[in-house]
Write a structure and sequence with these properties.
About 10% of the residues lie in helices and about 45% in strands. With about 400 residues, the chain is mostly beta strands. It is globular and about 70 Å long. It has one domain: Porin, CATH 2.40.160.
Length: about 400
């Protein structure tokens, strides 16, 4: 297979977060950073503080500590539709279940990014020798529990598999296949009693979450000398329920995130180990420059209805510094809940900004379907869910 074919595959990979990933030291498997669900996608991809459904496995698994019952969901998205790549798509499947005997919830998710079918050719010859499929996938298993009525803890373990090709290129020894592991650790503070002078009573209407995800060793396709870091990511999320009555509620969400990847190799051509980069990546450059590398997003979610049937309207905004990715877009979305079933969709548009990087989902609808059952009424009739 010609080296050009491999370069085309890698080009597709880097389209998703090209400037951001390259600026952060050419992190591999960027599909691990893709916002996976339509609900958070509709509020500017700011789910780190809300985190009250099974997609919290990605945003902040500690949020699941405040939920009970069982839920499954699936999200499907076509990627880069503007290029007519019909076989490029992304799927995200989640599952969570509260188990009283272990005092928490077990969770799992499958992430699958399909890059389509490619034609293999010989070195120096355009004649086709066969076809192969390329994809990235990850299996996540987790556990979430309350450390205190107001504090949740979430832990994830993940197996990552990336298959860019099934045979080596030219004189290379290895194949375009790599496997690695990572883990996440997250916490969430959701106080039952929280009154702020001059602001008001935010009891059970305020959440603060922190999630450090994709902590793990470098991944490589050929040999260890050509390894790249996986995209370890820090996320701080807030959610505030601004208003709630018997039939409606309005919630504001805001996230800040930063890649914790060592961008600079030392004198012998090596980077800091991943467990050091969590700390040193804040100071690769001066701190003010590093803070420009922080991605910000926010959104609003409005619900109207009762426990049997309700609908949601959503909007959000995503911003990335021009020197660190330059992605800027507005999102809108909607959702329905009827009995056990839920349906969400989101839409991204970059048309309102000049000079920003295009998003692979720009002008594309993203859909999620969920089914949840067995949950109890939360302790308070107002505010965020709290489980039992």
């Amino acid at each position: 297979m010609k080296r050009l074919t491999m370069m085309l595959i890698l080009g597709v990979l880097t389209l998703f977060n090209s400037n951001k990933i390259m600026a952060q030291g050419e992190a591999a498997v960027p599909f691990l950073l893709l916002a996976p669900d339509s609900r958070a996608g509709g509020i500017g991809e700011s789910g780190g503080g809300l985190a009250d459904n099974s997609a919290a496995i990605f945003w902040n698994p500690a949020g699941i500590a405040f939920l009970d019952g069982t839920e499954v969901s699936i999200t499907h998205s076509n990627w880069l539709p503007q290029f007519g790549l019909d076989d490029l798509f992304y799927d995200y499947l989640t599952y969570r279940q509260y188990i009283e005997e272990i005092g928490g919830s077990v969770t799992s998710s499958i992430t699958y990014m399909n890059f389509g079918e490619f034609i293999r050719t010989g070195e120096g010859s355009p004649d086709p020798l066969g076809k192969f499929r390329s994809f990235d996938a990850a299996l996540t298993l987790g556990y979430s529990t309350k450390l205190h009525p107001d504090w949740g803890l979430g832990l994830n373990f993940r197996i990552i598999h990336s298959r860019l090709s099934d045979k080596p290129t030219a004189g290379e020894v290895g194949e375009g296949v790599a496997t690695s592991v990572s883990f996440d650790i997250a916490t969430m503070w959701r106080p039952e009693e929280f009154k702020i002078p001059l602001i008001g009573d935010l009891s059970n209407r305020f959440s603060l979450g922190i999630n450090v995800s994709n902590i793990g060793p470098e991944i490589y396709y050929i040999d260890q000398a050509q390894a790249d870091p996986i995209p370890t990511n820090f996320r701080l999320g807030l959610a505030i329920m601004l208003m709630q009555d018997d039939y409606s509620s309005l919630t504001w969400t805001g996230d800040m995130s930063k890649l914790l990847v060592d961008r600079k190799k030392n004198a012998d051509g090596k980077r800091d180990k991943f467990y050091k980069a969590i700390f040193t990546s804040w100071f690769d450059d001066d701190f003010s420059t590093e803070m420009r590398d922080v991605v910000t997003s926010m959104g609003l979610e409005y619900w109207y209805g009762d426990d049997d049937f309700k609908f949601a309207l959503r909007t959000g905004f995503f911003y990335e510094d021009p020197d660190f990715g330059n992605r800027k877009f507005v999102t809108i979305g909607a959702g329905l809940r009827y009995d056990l079933y839920g349906f969400d969709f989101s839409y991204i548009t970059t048309d309102v900004f000049k000079g920003g990087e295009n998003h692979p989902l720009s002008d594309t609808l993203r859909f999620s379907l969920l089914i949840g059952w067995g949950g109890t009424k939360h302790k308070s009739t107002k505010g965020f869910p709290r489980g039992i």
